[in-house]
Amino acid sequence: MPRLPSTFIMTNSVDTTDADPQARWDDMKLYGPYARTLTRWIHKLLDPLSFSSVVDVGCGRGHTLERLTQRYPSINRVAGIDLSTASLSAAKARVGQGEFHQLDIQTAHLPEQFDLVICTEVMELLVNDIQALIHMRKMTAKYILITAMQGHTLPPWQARIGGQVRHYQHGELAAKVQQAGFTLIRCVEWGFPFYSPLYRLALNLTDGRGRDGQYGLGRKMLSEAIYRLFFLNSARRGKIIFIVAAPR
Questions:
Q1: Under CATH, to which class is 21-247 assigned?
Q2: Distance between CA 180 and CA 173 in Å, rounded?
Q3: Residue 35 to residue 224: CA distance in whole angstroms
Q4: Which residues contact 32 (CB under 8 A, 6 or more apart)?
Q5: How many CB atoms lie under 10 A from the CB of residue 5?
Q6: Residue-wise pLDDT tens digits, 149-172
Q7: Has this prediction a pTM greater than 0.70?
Q8: Each residue of 110-122: pLDDT tens digit?
Q9: Is 206 exposed, middle or buried (CB count within 10 Å of its CB: 0-12, 13-18, 19+)?
């Protein structure tokens, strides 16, 4: 398969050096209550679908792809896209299979299609989100699954720590997905009341600190308790949106 040149850069600041600052979030991806809930809902939405190939747009260090290949043995073709060469190397080692490409989804796409395109916690980072969705549609053979934050103002700590440029207004992302050429299959708005506003309020009060680094026993126990509490959240109201769609 032809490879695209590694020259695509996003307009907001993202590290693309050999050192990978994203490694400090590895434990959060494993034990954090929000990350575990995200995985649980992704699997819940994907379980009824049939797919054998997947590309993760903004794959980071490969946590989502690793879980998908473990849960769905029918997957026989895996790809990842990211800006950071260090994260791509970590993803390839973690997943143990597939092809990983450095490119900016706002300006380019892979020259092939996949049964499933997945894009989690990425749309908020993109200045040109409509162009990114159009490029993702060109890679989508059957389904796309997108997760994003919506419905509240972007707090300064999230822009600083995570590089986010927006949180979507209610209904905004679904409208943009349709504008880019997709038909909506399912939308889930999750999080009320224990994630949003309560957990979000705690993050805002602490300026987003305390989620990175290694998780010792105490942090693991607290994270487990919050994760269990999150099962009580509404799936009809909340600040996290999950969208499953198909290309028109």
A1: alpha beta
A2: 11
A3: 11
A4: 211, 223
A5: 8
A6: 998 777 776 767 778 888 899 999
A7: yes
A8: 999 999 999 999 9
A9: exposed
